[in-house]
Design brief:
By secondary structure, the protein is mostly helical. 54% of the residues lie in helices and 7% in strands. Helix 2 (36-50) packs across helix 3.
């Protein structure tokens, strides 16, 4: 990675990092507005949409295995793109 601090952030954070700060509660700001569970749900919904359904239970057994593979592939690609983004950041990029 280009910057050591981003490697540290990737290892220790359990949420996607935003350049902008958001107030969580009185005088407490964080660089995130989304959570890991949000990402999981979006990838899950995207995967299910490939099969034209909205619930895992709507998939056949064969479709379920294929959907699980697609989910893993989308997740890997998301993580790859996220790491690429993080590797290009410097401390000056943050508010």
């Amino acid at each position: 990675m280009k910057y050591d601090f981003t490697k540290h952030l990737l290892e220790d954070l359990d949420y996607p990092l935003s350049l902008k700060k958001y107030e969580r509660y009185l005088d407490h700001y964080e660089h995130n507005k989304g959570y890991v569970n949000d990402i999981h749900d979006l990838i899950r919904k995207l995967t299910l949409s490939i099969f034209g359904v909205t619930l895992n239970s709507d998939l056949s057994e064969d479709e379920y295995e294929e959907a699980a593979t697609m989910y893993r592939n989308l997740k890997k690609y998301y993580l790859y793109l996220y790491e690429q983004r993080m590797s290009k950041l410097s401390l000056d990029d943050f508010e």
